[in-house]
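[Q] Does anyone have a clean structure-token version of this?
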Amino acid sequence: MTAFMSVTEILQFADDLVFAHQGKHLNDLQKLILKGVYQGKTYEEIAGQSKWSESRVRNIASELWQLLSEELGEDIKKSNFRSTLERVYIESFNNIYIGSNNNFKLTSQVTNKEAQENDVSHKPQSIDHDLTLAPQIINFYNRATELEQLNNWLFKQNTRLISVLGLSGIGKTTLVKKFVDLNLDKFEVVIWKSLHFAKSLELLIDDLLNICKQEAKETLDDKLTQLFDVLNKKPYLIIIDDVQNIFIKGELAGKYKPEYQNYQRFFTMITEAKHQSQVILISQEQCKEMNCLDESLYSLKCLKLSGLDDVAILQQMALKDEESWLRLIKLYEGNPFYLKTIANSIKNIFDGYVSEFLSDNELIITKDMQGNLQLLFDKLSPTEQQIIFQMSDFKQPVSREALKANLELSSTDFINGVESLQQRCLVTKIKGDQIRFKLSPVFQEYFANIYEEKSDHH
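[A] Here you go.
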């Protein structure tokens, strides 16, 4: 499978669905509509490129969305046509090749694949994928650049260790799962593990060896040797989510809790030992070795996710005033989690009118956001908290000199603190005539409120 469905693949897949429903293929107008919608064109633009009127195009499109909705059992419309068909295509692919546990069944896929079902040469050589802990993707938004970056690192540069970093809710896990869904056929074995409930390295290695049908040896050293022998025999892709849970609270980013210190050795071995497999780490903060090891000498890469500048994020949230959506997205930095929670508030209080919400000219931090941000704040070291509180006083990006002048920190503590905040994706560096540092508006508002509350108590 390619990283994205092409126009040809979309048309073929839709044609299969229509044929299964009606016993006949797409006509020329239906194909033109699907191709135009795929390319983001309006009904007026599609009509302008054809011999049909806009009203005719709209009517046929409406019938087509209804037909596809009935065949798939989902509400298909112009705004979600492409994303839904891509998701359904992936789900049907999973069912055919790796025995997915969900109940989705596509009649047309069974019809078109009958010959292949009976011909083992068309199946992947291995079906040892363990995606039990991987999430199911419902919506996926514009991350084409990031998918291409992962594709390049894994398949062209054969990068052994990749860290995908970003704030909670930014879409790290969704991005990696989308990549996995699109490239399952390129790995003999894919294993998805989570450290949401943190476990020792020894237990994780036991899990991996068990999936690889190996009986784990006694000592951790022997288990590691055993695992890397397995990883050297064929290409595995191992994803480890929620890595931030093995780091200690109240310290600078990436410092391991004592009971999880062995993970540092394991991650370093991934880049140094001989094998033909790859590991993706998903985390809210960066591991020490990802920061200390030289990328030119070691096979590792780091991908930091920023927010999305895409109105499609809001299309499923039943909001009004579409012309105001981009302002809302920019205000909340394109973070899908922030946008989902604020969209609920806009629906409840402003009847869905985004322009009315924005007219108050105030950044609102919802209860869900507060809980999310409090967890993050609790992880910060005292030095980082000092720097954050000081930055919340500045409404614009601030230079290193101006920021340090207002803090009673040594140069060492200051530099380590700012660097740690960058590794947590809380602070970004802006290059220009003078290097400046920026705290996101959402954190600026949240931390300013905390600082005000603390000042009131004193």
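[Q] Thanks! Anything notable?
[A] Residues 93-127 have pLDDT under 50 and may be disordered.
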